[in-house]
Amino acid sequence: MTFRDNNHEHRILRLDELWNQLTDLSNFAREFGIEDIFQDNGAKVLQQLIYLNFRIIPGREGHDAYSEDACEWEMKSINLETSATGFSTNHHTTHEIINNYRNVKWSFAIYHGITLEEIYVMSPRTLEPFFSQWDGQLNEGREHLNNPKIPVSFVRQNGVRVFPFDPNHPIDPQSIN
Q1: How far is the C-alpha of 63 from the C-alpha of 72, rounded, in Å?
Q2: How far apart are CA 86 and CA 66, in angstroms?
């Protein structure tokens, strides 16, 4: 392949076609408060917001989204094509953050690369074993915990799968208590 030969020109045209579609997706994402689909998993967040019928909470502090009933949600995702085995939480988890976690519902999206495979939802009550464990670790004198994880296996065993949608009985995430 040589610079600007037929093969190179073909790749440029193909990229331009695909990029125009990304521009359309980016413009659509802005309607949902996502300014850059390439930052902070923006495109994946958009996908989850739409499938779950959520709205984003602006800013990087606090919870991630809210549902139609104005319930706030913590949204987590993982790409199983990486070495990760658990959902990340917060790089400076403190008692205050844990107490905030106890007051919201949670969604967990499982990806393979960019392909969404599953979404589970959980109540904070279901996650309480982790919250209690983290509180205990902080009570041992630690100032904060560095990004404690919630295992994918726990989410799959204890969460309610809402995606892929069951065509006969789709589950509204808001209905999970």
Answers
A1: 7
A2: 23
- DSSP of the chain: --TTSHHHHHHHHHHHHHHHHHHHHHHHHHTTT-S-TTSTTHHHHHHHHHHHT-EEPSSSSS--EE-TT--EEEEEEEETTSS--EE---TTB-HHHHHHHTTSEEEEEEEETTEEEEEEEE-HHHHHHHHHHHHHHHHTT-S-BS---EEHHHHHHHSEEEES--SSSPPPGGG--
Identify the residue whose tokens are 């990806």. 111
pTM exceeds cut of 0.85: yes
Banded pLDDT at 57 (limits 50, 70, 90): very high
The residues annotated with a catalytic role in the active site are 64, 74, 76
Q: Which domains does the chain have, with CATH numbers?
A: 56-175 (3.40.210.10)
Q: Which two tokens stand for residue 139?
A: 């009570």
Q: Are 47 and 111 in contact (CB under 8 A)?
A: no
pLDDT tens digits for range 116-144:
999 999 999 999 999 999 999 999 988 99
Q: Which residues have a Cβ under 8 Å from the Cβ of 9 and sit 6 or more positions away?
A: none
